[in-house]
Amino acid sequence: MKNRLFKFLLGILTVTSTLLVACGDDDSDDGAELSAPEIGTPTEITQNSFFIDWPFVEGAEAYLIDVATDDEFNDLLTSYDALRNGFSEITVTGLEASTTYFVRVQAVLRDVVSDYSNVVSVTTLSEGGNSGSDTFLKNAADFPVGMAVRSNRLTGQHEQILLDEYDQITSEYEMKMNIMYPSEGNFDFTSADATVDWAIDNGLEVHGHALIWHNATPSWVENFSGTDEEFEDMIEDYIKTVVTRYKGKVKSWDVVNEAFEDNTGALRNSVFRQRMGDDYIEKCYNWVREADSEVLIFYNDYSMVIDAVKRRAAINLMKDFIDRGVPVDGFGFQMHISYDFPGKDLIASTAKEVTDLGLLLHFSELDVRANPNNDLVALTNQRALDQQIKVREVVEVYNAIPEESKFALTIWGMRDDETWLVDFWGHPDWPLLYDSDFNTKKAHTGFLEGLD
Length: 452
Ligand code: G3I
Prior knowledge:
By secondary structure, the protein is α/β, with parallel strands linked by helices. The chain folds into two domains: 2-123, Immunoglobulin-like (Sandwich); 137-449, TIM Barrel (Alpha-Beta Barrel). The chain contains 14 helices and 16 strands. The longest helix is centred in the N-terminal third of the chain and has 23 residues, at 2-24. The protein is elongated, with a radius of gyration of 27 Å. 40% of the residues are buried. Residues 172-173, 176, 215-216, 257, 302, 334, 365, 420 line the site of ligand G3I.
């Protein structure tokens, strides 16, 4: 608030001094050079207003503000058609909810007008307001909306939100090998069964995650003492046992997760590669298909948007599989991203690399770090707005892919205080759609806006 007062007083001083100069010398504005304003990021966005400001323009006595619903400024709002404003900020009001507006500004001194500023676009919030929504995600989306779950979070408000807002679930960790196959010859499907049975009983789809992952491999498998052939037989038996158990219940599996090294795109030297050979992924995909002719077979990995070399390696493997008839149906981009990165265009262009292959695309583990640089101790209004915009961008990208490529968009956790990210990075963060009291956040509204 102090900043706004300072700017107000400085604005008064600037206008006064300019008027004095102008009055004192009729020729004072001959040849006056007025630079174009530079509008900052819109803030305080509500259903019917937003705030913009820009640095003072030297010599300006006022500013002319255009607001339109098109970026050519053909459809100017009556109230904002070269609206003269004495200060270098304004709250634009009287707007429609869930509508995108375009703004530009000019500086003016008597009859001298500067070039137009940069154009900024703002989308006002949906009717649901900026915290809390009366629209459930699954009702608004024309693709399945997924949520990562744990078997001890399928009751109470967790369950209510899942039933209200989601079509599909992914087990966050209880359908991985280290949980389902904790010791040789000893399967433990307790948590997996509880999760799958809950979903089937409640009419939600189940995406299986993840049969083979170097980070969820039981130690007895890492230290398997048998021959390579016995190792391969054991893995085949494990895969076929699990896939057969959930046949007709689990519609899809991340059969192999994160098989490539960051930056180099080399195949990770996991125990599976070491004991089964470089073609271990193909072997696993074939075993899944042999066990279930219908289940969808996915590859899943992180940094697929930002790590071009790693993405190229994974895409090339999928192309090879498609060319050789190795069964594969889909590709998961995990989407563990930040409020300010990656950009929407890069997300869209990399997603297209998958859909151009004819594969289903799954944004499989979306969370949006609000505090990647650990510069916050609490989620600020501005960062919540930034996160809302990024969620909206991700959903806009997913919503725009070809219908035949749509599989699901899955959020990696329900409440901010349940995210894996805090333990992983060791500092606070608020990356999800609901706060610790199960209230929807601006990020949830951003999801809905991305569906408009
Ligand atoms: O719930 C038990 C608790 O009862 C026990 O006392 C404690 C100590 O053993 O473990 C708790 O389970 C942990 C679970 O997270 C819940 O916190 C598991 O040990 C731990 O391994 C598990 O971590 C999961 C991790 O994958 C490994 O499976 C994270 O929740 C999960 O978010 C994370 O998800 C991965 C994706 O599968 C693949 N992409 C990356 C993503 C993040 O790492």
